[in-house]
């Protein structure tokens, strides 16, 4: 793996993103709009305080997954990946470069959404704000890693969208937002235990309820999933869409 090639790839992807104003708006503005909408629905009451931290984990994860997977797929279907991989560039160089570029946007996205929730929307949390913001950033990076991995298996943008019911919605349903994970049936609880978003939401809840939260175990699992997905993506990445 070459640091120089990785940085050059990240700079190229960021330059392309900056010229796509609609995509940038979707990544940065949509999570804030969704949080504001739900705050308005619940009138900033106790329900908002209960679900707000979980939403800070879920929205960045979902949106970064969708944007990253479609953007990477377009690079492959247009032949850009084939041209890049014909150069002295490894698949891991390419994927890490993409991860750095989209990860930079993910950091901004998570900080904007977290700052909005903890500031103007008045989300009530006991733990330090920086811990919640850090977890939100990691969740967005997890979405980036999953999007890069999924893009290797999709042949079109429509197929990327089809992956959402298979990979994203089950995590949304079983992460503890709708029903506490401890109250799930045994089979669903076991499934929830192997889904990374469950640990992200657990970490958010701990950071919300405790003034001195212990979230390192959950953070380690989330980071491990993200790194594992990047490694798998490097082994499955194809140069072109068949």
From TrEMBL:
GO terms for biological process: response to antibiotic. Keywords: Antibiotic resistance, Cell membrane, Membrane, Transmembrane, Transmembrane helix, Transport. It is found in: Cell membrane. InterPro entries: ABC-2_transporter_component (IPR051449), ABC2_TM (IPR013525), ABC2_TM_bact-type (IPR047817), ABC_2_transport (IPR000412). The keyword Transmembrane applies. Residues 15-240 form the ABC transmembrane type-2 domain. The chain crosses the membrane at residues 21-42, 54-73, 94-118, 130-153, 160-179, 215-237. PROSITE patterns: ABC_TM2. Coiled coil: none annotated. One of its GO terms (molecular function) is ABC-type transporter activity. It is a multi-pass membrane protein. One of its GO terms (cellular component) is ATP-binding cassette (ABC) transporter complex. This is Transport permease protein. The lineage of its organism: Bacteria, Bacillati, Actinomycetota, Actinomycetes, Jiangellales.
């Amino acid at each position: 793996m070459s640091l120089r090639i990785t940085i050059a790839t990240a700079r190229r992807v960021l330059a392309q993103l900056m010229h796509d104003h609609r995509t940038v708006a979707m990544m940065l503005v949509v999570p804030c709009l969704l949080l504001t909408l739900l705050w308005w629905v619940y009138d900033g009451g106790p329900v908002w305080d209960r679900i707000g931290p979980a939403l800070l984990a879920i929205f960045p994860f979902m949106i970064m997954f969708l944007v990253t997977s479609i953007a990477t797929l377009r690079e492959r279907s247009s032949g850009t990946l084939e041209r890049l991989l014909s150069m002295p560039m490894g698949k891991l160089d390419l994927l890490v470069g993409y991860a750095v570029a989209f990860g930079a946007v993910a950091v901004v996205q998570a900080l904007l959404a977290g700052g909005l929730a903890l500031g103007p929307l008045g989300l009530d949390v006991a733990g330090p704000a920086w811990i919640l913001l850090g977890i939100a950033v990691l969740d967005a990076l997890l979405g980036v890693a999953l999007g890069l991995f999924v893009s290797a298996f999709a042949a079109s943008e429509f197929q990327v969208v089809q992956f959402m019911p298979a990979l994203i919605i089950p995590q949304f349903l079983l992460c503890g937002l709708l029903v506490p994970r401890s109250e799930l049936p045994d089979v669903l609880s076991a499934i929830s235990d192997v889904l990374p978003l469950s640990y992200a939401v657990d970490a958010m809840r701990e950071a919300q309820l405790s003034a001195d939260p212990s979230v390192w175990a959950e953070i380690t699992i989330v980071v491990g999933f993200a790194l594992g997905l990047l490694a798998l993506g490097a082994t499955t990445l194809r140069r072109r869409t068949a």
